[in-house]
Amino acid sequence: MTHVSRDLLASRPAQATEIRAIFDERAAAPLRPIRVALIGTYTPRKCGIATFTTDIAEKLREFRADVDVEVYALDDADAPLTYEGVTDTILGSDQETFSRAARAINESAVDAVWLQHEYGIYGDDDGIAVCDFVDRLAAPLILTCHTVLAEPSDRQRAILRHLVTRASRIMVMSRHSRDLLSREYGANPEILEVIEHGAPDRPFGRQTEFKSRFGLTDRKVLMTFGLLGPGKGLERAIEALPAIVKNHPEAIYRIVGATHPNLVASQGEAYREGLMDLAERLGVSDHIEWDNRFLDTDELLDQLEACDIYITPYPNLQQSTSGTLSYAVALGKAVISTRYLHACELLGDNVGCLIEPGSYEEIARSVSNLLDNPADLSAMQRRAYDRGRETIWPRFAEATAKLAAAAVAPAPRRASLTATPGLSGVLAMCDSTGMLQHAIGIVPDRRHGYCLDDNVRALMLMNVAEGLHPTERMRWSMIYASFIQDAWNPEAQRFRNFMRFDRSWCEDIGSDDSNGRAIWALGQTALCAPDENMREWARNLYEHVLPQMSGIGSPRAVAFEVLGAAAMLRSAPGHAMSLEVIARGGDLLERLLGGGRRPDWAWFEAVLGYDNPRLPQAMIEAGLALGRDDWTASGLETLEWICRSQQSSTGQFRPIGSESFGKEHTFLPFDQQPLEAQAAIEAALTAHNASEAAFWYEHASAAWSWFFGGNDRGVQLADMATGRCRDGVTPRGANRNCGAESILAFQLSHYAMLALYRMTAESR
């Protein structure tokens, strides 16, 4: 931790803020309009999902002024289209356009991203590019699953499971899909919402009027609509016609829709021509009317209004959604359908007629029964119309607006800087050996034992914590110091890091970073510990181990050493070994910066890792200690770069996520961890000592707010009453565990933030 003066902390006023547990409270969502980035294929592309995405945008704009939709249309590089009213387009086969779109969406600060998923619209390999795309999105993800396969390939299963792990809310259009997602794909039932496919709200019983428009007066009109292909089962419907027209020669079957473009590309119109040949052989060509077009929605609805019986003879019983089926029911059409999933749910309770697939006899018998009994036909049409009132667009818009609102992160709470966080959460993780690493929820997990990293942080906290009785402070300081002392391995001349619960060490040599952090803690203890004997112990161990650390080369370990040496210089000005460490560390960081920097990447390395602000923080400290203004300036410049990289377009703190680790020249938003907020705050305190720009306090304040809901999911991480902190922010919300690192990051952030607050108050 950056040096915080005990005198400064002692001068704080008495707290006046009530402290209470707030882990399970949820702030109210903002009352302003919700901004949603909507992603999917879009009209004029001719596919069902394009129609559905367009319907979402249009119906929310029509019925819900409180939801502002910004459309990102998926386009096909081989057949690009011109889109109207969209924010941007994304080439479904171009990974780079996905990356650019994700950046644009993040910078636009939308409240949620609503993604339409179907395996065929996100490029090759079942659209696996969508996984990297959603990983780059910071806003809460709403996922609409248009296809949920009961028997997917391994890749298809992996893709959908990944999307499920990123989603804050999941919309499906059938109960079967909901249950399948929960059972087979691991979706949390609490975030699953069944919203039936929306449908138009038109008056009932206008067949006569619309038949007249289309020259169908006095005809009994059967109809099927959709992109033609072998999966539609149209052969069976055509085979049923001879029996139907035998008793009802006025019947005509209208097959409306273009041949699927993929089929046209591979076979031309051979499939349609085969159906026409079948009709010719059966002698029913005069009873079929072909309309080889993909109709816009209004014309489709007009043609549906002229229909008496709508037929969906699909052989694939796993189809979970059919937009045209929803339209036909809402318009009050008698429907005869095979028992595919959507039909079973929509047409149950005698709303329509369900038949087995592959049987033209059943189609013929069902159609003839309705045509023979006009009263039964009329009654089924009325039942369908009444059922459709549940799915009309105003209802759909209301349901989807609620879905979006449920995904939006609530506003952050305000947390008083003058209120001291409790320590019960810290001490609950500790025993006579030290501080345990991990927890399951708030309960310490003994299986993972202890580590040096957490115990040095715990000692640093004891050095600055407020409100502790001296005896209690010394008790815990001694436990943590004893752990550090025992961690030193004189044979290996390094600190060990991991210890089992039975107090046996897991290793002879710990990581470079854990060794560097131990040096930092010793330097900070020599400066800040209230007890002189503890300061003396820290100084002696520091001077004993420091000469043996010259081989450490990890950039962060070197930065930790520099921070420890800078603290030692404050307690012992002119300390020779510390000056050497700072000179060596500053030189290394300068060389790294020269090798890693490029115009768009003002950083020490090609990748970003954890604790990123520690590198420029150490460079600033080195510059201040040695009077190297160039180092100080470089440190301030790179710290500002990483700070702005960890800031959303609204000014909210968005730490580099752990999923970014190892990825060159890029960073992802999740998982976000408390360690990064601590580093940002403490580095800002160091920067303020070198440059009193207002930016440092503003950025530190944003990082402090991150603990209290000022994050991409609006989740409360820190609890002032107990001093606990959740382990971070995931795409689905807070990681519920409260491990040592997270608790200590929050506690130490408080004291650094308080010191920065005091310094800025004095300058005002």
Number of beta strands? 20
Contiguous uncertain segments of 5+ residues = 1-30
Q: Number of DSSP helices?
A: 29
Taking the alpha carbons of the first and last residues, their distance comes to 25 Å
- Looking at the structure, the CATH topology of the domain at 206-390 is Rossmann fold
- Shape descriptor: elongated
Q: Strands of the largest sheet, in order across it?
A: 3-2-1-4-5-6-7
Largest sheet, if any?
Answer: 7 strands, parallel
Top-tier CATH class of the domain at 206-390? Alpha Beta
Portion in beta strands: 5-15%
Name given to the CATH architecture of the domain at 206-390: 3-Layer(aba) Sandwich
Structural class based on helices, strands and sheet pairing: alpha/beta
CATH superfamily placement of the domain at 206-390 = Glycogen Phosphorylase B
Proportion in helices: 40-55%
GO molecular function: glycosyltransferase activity
Keywords: Transferase
Domain Glycosyltransferase subfamily 4-like N-terminal: 48-198
Domain Glycosyl transferase family: 212-386
Give a brief description:
The protein has 764 residues and is α/β, with parallel strands linked by helices. It has 29 helices and 20 strands. It comes from Novosphingobium fluoreni.
